[in-house]
Write a structure and sequence with these properties.
Layout: H1 19-25, H2 40-46, H3 50-57, H4 60-65, H5 69-75, E1 77-78, H6 91-97, H7 102-109, E2 113-115, H8 126-138, E3 146-149, H9 169-174, H10 178-194, E4 199-200, H11 225-241, E5 245-251, H12 272-288, E6 293-296, H13 315-325, E7 331-333, H14 340-343, H15 348-358, E8 363-364, H16 369-382, H17 387-403, H18 420-433
Parallel strand pairs: 1-8, 2-3, 3-4, 4-5, 5-6, 6-7
Enzyme class: hydrolase
Region (Disordered): 24-57
Catalytic activity: Hydrolysis of terminal non-reducing N-acetyl-D-hexosamine residues in N-acetyl-beta-D-hexosaminides
Amino acid sequence: MLRRLGLGLLVIVMAGCSSVEAERTAAPTSSAPPPSSTPAASESRTAPSPSARAEGRGDVAATLAGMSVEEKVGQLFMPVVYGSRADSEHRENTARFGVGTPAEAIEKYHPGGVIIFPWAGNVSDAKQLAALTTGLRRASGKVPLMIGVDQEHGIVSPLGSIVTKLPGAMAIGSTGDPANAREAARLTGTELRALGITMDFAPVADVNINPRNPVIGPRAFGSDPARVATMVGAAVDGFHAAGIASTAKHFPGHGDTSTDSHTGLPVIQHSKAQWRRLDAPPFREAIEHGIDAIMTAHVVMPKLDPSGDPATLSRTILTGLLRDELGFEGVISTDALNMAGVREKYGDAEVAVRAVLAGADVLLMPPDMPKAYGAVLSAVKSGRISAARLDASVTRILRLKAKRGMFGTVTTNPGLVRSPAHLKAARRIAGEAGVS
């Protein structure tokens, strides 16, 4: 959900690591295409190590085998780093990570990714942002860094000052034409990739059935589950056509809330039958279109899980509904862990551990990175989080990176942003949506 307080980010995997999950992820394979052939004589002269060759082509199993426990735990995290350059000192980095520069924070904690925000000093113009993302990737070492942003357009548009302006989801949904959703996502993804950003925390898959919803509203494609599902599927196709990872949010659904989960803990009284009819269709559609990640919601649905825990910490919802019933096999990300909706019941250290046990793969925006990282690492070393459970999440994260080309060279082209062709397409979409 990503705003100043937080993000709407992925959703969750499985909780206790059943034997089925262990078997399903014990022998990960790469989904990346094979490397181009190289003459044998040349290869013998250069003699790169097997692990180096594996990393270059995105060999997930070999990369996982070469990682330490500390590096694996780091892959679960996606924090905010502060500053406009990878090598620039910033007092917030010192306060939050114990090191001064974004590059040093990445080298220290080995995070699987970082999230970009203007309020963190990350964004001034396209050329600067492209240089920042390049510097961040260079600091990541042997495992590529995923760089994400919450670029929904409309009211959530952290890069709005530098990228092509497009209508928000509800305006696009009002056109009734999924081609507009696909093209808007393709344009967005193309520009993000040109800036070195490889994941967008979009599209919003919530069905906004509560007109007084204080946090979703125009961020959703509409209030009809079937129309929202069609638009979400088209948007996923558009992001993938641009070569960027996409995230459907906020599972199991944030559309019928009257509380903002940035500041409180919403409760939704949908029965399981209502959930299947009202909330689930867009997520089903996203999964059918190969969505890379799903972000959790910090909402309580007592008729789906009577524990009182938000969905982000619920194994019943993340594993039982998302994994088992909907069949999702990709990455589950939490929404931002600095939001009040997930912090009311447990401390920041315990929240991170419980999210992993519930099935989350990515821990987005922990408010205290050292505390959360230390808690997860301790839980792994004590056996509370099993080695197989950790490997399952890291495998999913690495597979996503391989699938979206993050193991290869990520080139930037800031001159592509706001190109005449993109501006023309955006004007056409805005015209159909009735947005000036």
